[in-house]
């Protein structure tokens, strides 16, 4: 991945934080009243449920404009503004996700069925490996709730994930220059996949997930660098051996399988000790924040890695 470049979000595009907060409380009350999710996915709407406070980071939300216009989704291009500009022709419905491998009940889930799993709001801190971070109110459900339905076998130790391949709808997959091999693939250990913080997200900011953020369903693993959070998933496989991952295959010296957020392990080309919270402070004079071990989720996840050398297993 290229080194960090400052966001190109005009200040005028960023709504003041208090307006976001008031919008959020509106969405919250709409949800309690049992209203549908906004956006194009009316048929997919599912009621929101209150989430436990441990799943809500108590830090200012990153403006929605920044969340939806500044990100990585190489299937739509390699620049931060490419996904929002090039994802308009992508069709997130109809959609299905195949779950196979070492499971008692392999199954193809239609999106409507996935939306029937109880959806919750989770406000997570997200840290990109390139040095920027955001706080995003996701909507989704624990991956464990889905895995339970297919009954993983005792031999299953890892979970691998695959993004859709559609060059006709994803310009980054169709051009002469191919930045990555497709499909984009990612993986987790089964215990990481089953951790209550790990969700499949179907929305953000109270709305159906925008195409550029991984519609209609993407992974969110908040204690790992952002590239683990694979988008537009079509296949989830339970496997015995550590799966291959796109970024490790592309550059194993720079990107490991674990990719836990770790201020003590530098990327070979830059420090991971600090981060810039997008939307905070503008271009100049923006104070970088200290990056926290496991992105601030150490209390919940550090025990998963007891006895593991996190410098060797980066
Ligand atoms: N998933 C796919 N399929 N393709 C990608 O290029 N980029 C990753 C991740 N998931 C990527 C992907 C990276 S590097 C980051 S930082 C996050 O998506 C950023 O997207 P978000 O802001 O919507 O979480």
Can you offer a commentary on this structure?
This protein is of the alpha+beta class. The chain has a single domain (11-305), classed as Sulfite Oxidase, Chain A, domain 2 (Alpha-Beta Complex), CATH 3.90.420.10. The chain is 18% helix and 21% strand. It contains 9 helices and 13 strands. The chain has helices at residues 17-32, 64-69, 82-86, 111-115, 143-150, 171-174, 190-194, 246-250, 298-301, and strands at residues 48-49, 96-101, 107-110, 119-127, 132-142, 158-163, 185-189, 199-204, 207-208, 218-220, 233-239, 274-277, 289-290. The strands form 2 sheets. Strands 1, 4, 5, 8, 9, 10, 12 and 13 form an 8-stranded mixed beta sheet that branches. The two termini are 16 Å apart. The relative contact order is 0.17. The structure holds ligand MTE. Ligand MTE binds at residues 71-75, 126, 128, 163, 184, 213-214, 226-227, 229-232. Its EC number is 1.8.5.-. Keywords: Metal-binding, Molybdenum, Oxidoreductase, Periplasm, Signal. Belongs to the MsrP family. This is Protein-methionine-sulfoxide reductase catalytic subunit MsrP. It is an enzyme of class 1 (oxidoreductase).
């Amino acid at each position: 991945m290229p080194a960090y470049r400052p966001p190109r979000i005009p200040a005028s595009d960023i709504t003041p934080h208090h307006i976001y907060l008031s919008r959020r409380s509106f969405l919250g009350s709409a949800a309690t009243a049992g209203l549908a999710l906004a956006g194009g996915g009316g048929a997919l709407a599912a009621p929101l449920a209150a989430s436990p406070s441990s799943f809500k980071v108590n830090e200012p939300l990153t403006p929605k404009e920044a969340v939806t216009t500044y990100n990585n989704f190489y299937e739509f291009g390699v620049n931060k503004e490419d996904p929002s500009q090039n994802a308009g022709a992508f069709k997130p419905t109809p959609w299905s996700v195949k779950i196979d491998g070492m499971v008692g009940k392999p199954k193809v889930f239609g999106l409507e069925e996935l939306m029937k799993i109880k959806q919750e709001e989770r406000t997570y801190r997200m840290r990109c490996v390139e040095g920027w971070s955001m706080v995003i109110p996701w909507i989704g459900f624990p991956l464990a709730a889905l895995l339970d339905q297919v009954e993983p076998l005792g031999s299953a130790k890892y979970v691998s994930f695959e993004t859709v391949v559609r060059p006709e709808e994803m310009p980054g997959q169709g051009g002469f220059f191919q930045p990555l091999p497709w499909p984009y693939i990612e993986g987790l250990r089964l215990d990481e996949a089953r951790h209550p913080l790990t969700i499949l997200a179907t929305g953000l900011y109270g709305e159906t997930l925008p195409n550029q953020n991984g519609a209609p369903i993407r992974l969110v693993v908040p204690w790992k660098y952002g590239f683990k959070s694979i988008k537009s998933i079509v296949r989830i496989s339970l496997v015995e051996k550590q799966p291959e991952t796109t970024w490790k295959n592309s550059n194993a010296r720079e990107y490991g399988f674990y990719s836990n957020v770790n201020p003590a392990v530098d990327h070979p080309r830059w420090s991971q000790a600090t981060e810039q919270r997008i939307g905070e402070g503008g271009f100049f004079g923006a104070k970088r924040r200290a990056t926290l071990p496991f992105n601030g989720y150490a209390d919940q996840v550090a025990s998963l890695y007891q006895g593991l050398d996190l410098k060797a297993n980066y």
